[in-house]
Amino acid sequence: MNVSSSAGMVPVSTLGTPRIGPRRELKAALESYWSGRTDQSALLDIAARLRAANWARQKALGVTNIPSNDFSLYDHVLDTAVMVGAIPEAYGWTGGPVPLDTYFAMARGSEGDEPASCAPAICAHGHDHGRHTGVPALEMTKWFDTNYHYMVPEFVTGQRFTLASSKAVDEYREAKALGYDTRPVLLGPVTFLKLGKAKQPGLDPLSLLGDLLPVYVEVLRRLSASGAEWVQMDEPCLVLDLDEPTRAALRETYGFFAHALPKLKIMLTSYFGGLSANLDTALALPVAGLHLDLVRAPEQLAEVSAKARAGLVLSLGVIDGRNVWRADLPKLVDALAPVVRRRGIDHVQIAPSCSLLHVPIDLAQETALDADVKSWLAFAVQKMEELTTLATALAGNSEAVADRLAASGAAAQARRTSAKVHNPVVAARMAAVTPEMTRRGSPFAQRAAVQRQRFGLPAFPTTTIGSFPQTSEVRKARAAHGRGELSDRAYEDFLREETAATIRWQEEIGLDVLVHGEFERNDMVQYFGEQLAGFAFTRHGWVQSYGSRYVRPPILFGDVARPAPMTVEWWRYAQDCTDRPIKGMLTGPVTILNWSFVRDDVPRSLACRQIALAIRDEVADLEAAGAAMIQIDEAAIREGLPLRRADWDAYLDWAVESFRLCASGVSNATQIHTHMCYSEFNDIIAAIGAMDADVISIETSRSKMELLDAFVSYRYPNEIGPGVYDIHSPRVPTVEEMAELLAKATQRLVPEQIWVNPDCGLKTRKWEEVRPALVNMVAAAHRLRGDLARAAE
User: What is the pLDDT of residues 677-718, one digit of tens each?
Assistant: First the structure.
C-alpha cells in the first residue's frame, strides 16, 4: 500500500524506526570505519542516507508524525549521555563537541597505554587518534525487558551537565531541509537518570535533575526555534514501580518545561507496559499528548479515556512494536471506534506500542518463508501499512480500505485454526510432565563430590563460554554453502578443520575444560530453532541487539518438538580430538523463548515448557553419547523478568521450572553448567540458586565484580565462574587486571567455588584479540592457584 496523503485519516505516528538499513548498511559502515578502511565522512554520509530513506519510507506509507533523532550510530541512551555532557573523566573529554572516537570509546572501549583524551589528532582517514586510548567501555545492559542493549550512563558526585551535542537539532534541520516536518524524539530526563549508575555510594541520580533540566531546555529551545511544534519525550520509566520522589521528579521536569517553553507541545511517551499506579501522575503533567502501550496493557484504555482532560491528545499504541504478528484490524476498529468518536479525530493518534526499532524492516524481502506463516506476519513496513489502514477506517472511511480489513481478519482466523500451529502429540507430552522431572537425583553437595572425583580439575579451573571467533573465512564458507557453491562434504570438512585446530590451541594454552568453538552455528538461538518444529526463520529479518551486533530472531509460531538430535555428532567429533573434557553446548528454553519472536496465542510459560522438553531430549542424548559436562545457556533469564515486581514470582516460577525440566534428567556424575549475561542478580538470587546448575558463569568484568555482591548475603552453594574478560570490547585485558578481579571474587566466594572464564562467548571477537586475552586469563588463574598454595603452606 502506498499512501501519498494523510487526508481522511486519524493521525499516525511510528515513535521510531529501525536504524540499521534494509541490507544492514549501518553495520557495514560502522565496521569499515572501526577497522580503518573508511573515514568519518564516509560513515556519516551513509548514516545520512539511511535517515533520509527512513523519512521517505514513512512519508510514502502515510505516517503523519515522522520521528527524527530516533537514528543512532550506536545507542540512543549513549547519544543522550553525550548530548548532556555526561562523559566520565576516564575518556578525557574537556569540553566542546564530543569527538566521534570518544563516543565509540564509551561504547566499545579502546586500546593503548595512555589515558583517553578528546584532543584530536586526525589521521588521513579522519580518525581521532590523539591520546584517546586505553579505556574500557561503559557498562551495557538490556533496555527494559527487550533484547536491545543500552550503554549505562555514569554519574558522580558533583556531576555537571552541559550541551555537548546538537545531534537532535541537527537531524531535525536535516529532515526539514529534505522536506520532512518531523517530530523530534528525546529520551526523557527522568528515565535517563534512572537508567544511569551512580559511581559513588549514596549518590541518588535523581538529585542531579536540577542541573540536567537546563540542558534539556536549551535543546528544546533550539528545536522550537528551528520550527518544531511537537517533541516526543520518551519516559518509559512510567511503566515501572515508581516511588514518590520519582513521581515528584516527573512533576518538576514537565512543570519546568511548560514554564520555559509554553508553546512547545510535548508527546509524553510510555511503553512496555501500563501506567497503573502512575496513571494519575502522568495525566496531571502539563503535556499536550500522552502515548499508551495498549498491546502490553490494553486494559488501561478505558480508565485513561475516562480520566484524561478534554484537550489531551491520546496516542493509542495498538500495533505491536515488539513482535511480528499481523494485527486483527477489524477487531481493533471495533475496540477503538468509540474512543475516536468520543475524543474526536484531532485528539487521537494511532501508533505502535513502542518504537519499531525492535522488529525487522520489511517482510517483502522474505521470499522463502512458508506462505501461511508469512501471511500471519508484519514487519516495520507492514506495521506502518496497518497503522494507516486502521487510521483510515477509524476516520470513517472503512470502505476505502475494506479489502485490507477483510484480509487482516481472514489471516487472523486462519492462524487460530491452522494445523501448523497446533500439534496434539506435543499437547499430550506436556500433560504427562511430573514434578519429579524437574529435580536432580541428589543435592548439589553429593553431586559435587562425585564430579570432582570424576574430573580431577585444579583450583580455579579455566574454560570459555562456548563460541570462538567466527572469522571472515567461516562466514564466507557458510555463505557459499548456503548458496550451493560449497558441497555438504566440503563444508563439513572445513568445519571439522576449524574445530580441531581450535581444540589444539585450547590445549596448547592450558585451558582445563574445552569447547568445540561452535563454527557450525550461525546463532545460539537460531541454530536450535532451525532444528525444532514450530519455528520459522527469515533471511533478512535483522534487528539491532547493540551497536553493529544484529540478530535474526526465530519466529516461534506453533507447538515445539525436536524431530532429531541437534548437537550430538559435533560434540562426539570434538571429544574425539582431545582427552580433556569438552562441554556439550546448548541454549536453554528461557533464552530461546526470550530471544525469539514468540507466539501470542498461548501463555509464554506454555511455549517455554514445550521448548524445555525438546532440550531435555537433547541433554539425554548428549549424556548417552558420553558428554560429562553439558552447558545449557540461560543468558536471557533475567531480561524476561516482568517490569513490575508484583509479576516476578509467577515468571520466575515457570522460568526456573523450565530450566530444571530440561536439565534434571541426568546422573549425579554429569555436570550441568549454565551461563547468564547482563544480569543484575541481587533481586533474583534465590531463583538463580533454585535453578540448581552445578556451575554458573556470569558477566561481571564491566561491573568490576559488583554483581557478586548478591552472593554475600545469599550463600550460593554451587560453583560459579565470574567473567574476568569483557568480550564486548576489542581491548585485551592484562594478567594483572584479571587476577585482581579474581581476587575480588575470592572476597565473596570460597576458592573451591570459583571457575575462570570470559564474560560471554567469543564469536564476535577477532583471533588477534582472543588469543592474548585467553593466554592472560590462564596466567591469571595460575597466579591465583599459586597464591592459594602459598596460603595453605
Answer: 755 677 888 899 999 999 999 887 766 666 677 777 777 889
Assign residue 651 a region (left: φ > 0; alpha: ψ between -120 and 50; beta: otherwise): alpha
Q: Is the pLDDT of residue 247 over 90?
A: yes
Reported pTM: 0.88
Q: Which residues contact 333 (CB under 8 A, 6 or more apart)?
A: 390, 393, 394, 398, 405
What kind and span of H or E run contains 450?
helix 444-455
Please say whether the structural domain 461-792 has been given the CATH code 3.50.50.60: no
Per-residue pLDDT tens digits for 578-613: 999 999 999 999 999 999 999 999 999 999 999 999
Encode 157-171 in three state secondary structure.
CCCCCCCCCCHHHHH
Same fold, 62-71+139-417 and 461-792: yes
At a CB cut-off of 8 Å and minimum separation 6, what does 774 contact? 464, 509, 511, 725, 758
Question: Rounded to whole angstroms, how far apart are CA atoms 668 and 518?
Answer: 26
Q: What is the DSSP letter of 775?
A: H
By the 8 A CB rule, do 714 and 679 touch? no
CA atoms of 131 and 145, how far apart (whole Å)? 37
Is 728 assigned a catalytic role? yes
Strands 197-198 and 154-155: parallel
% of residues, the chain, pLDDT over 90 = 86
**Where is pLDDT greater, at 122 or 753?**
753
* Nearest C-alpha neighbor of 70 from the set 172, 138, 193, 141: 172
Q: Give the sheet arrangement for strand 230-234, strand by strand.
A: 67-68, 183-187, 230-234, 265-269, 289-293, 313-319, 348-352
Q: Which three cell numbers stand for residue 664?
A: 534434571
The reported pLDDT for the residue numbered 115 is 38
Q: Tell me the CA end-to-end span of the chain in Å, nearest whole number.
A: 78
Tracing cell 563444508 back to the chain, one arrives at 491
Domain boundaries, the chain: 62-71+139-417, 461-792
Q: CB-hemisphere CA count at 13 Å for 79?
A: 18
Mean pLDDT on 431-448: 96
Strand, helix or coil for residue 399: helix
Q: Which of 163, 287, 179 is nearest to 227 (CA)?
A: 179
Residues 195-237 have pLDDT tens digits of 999 999 999 999 999 999 999 999 999 999 999 999 999 999 9
CATH number for domain 62-71+139-417, candidates 3.40.640.10, 3.90.1200.10, 3.20.20.210, 3.40.50.1820: 3.20.20.210
- Residue from 347, 358, 516, 728 carrying the catalytic annotation: 728
User: 3-state DSSP call for residue 332?
Assistant: helix
Residue 111 φ/ψ, nearest 5 degrees: -105, 160
Average pLDDT over residues 564-574: 97
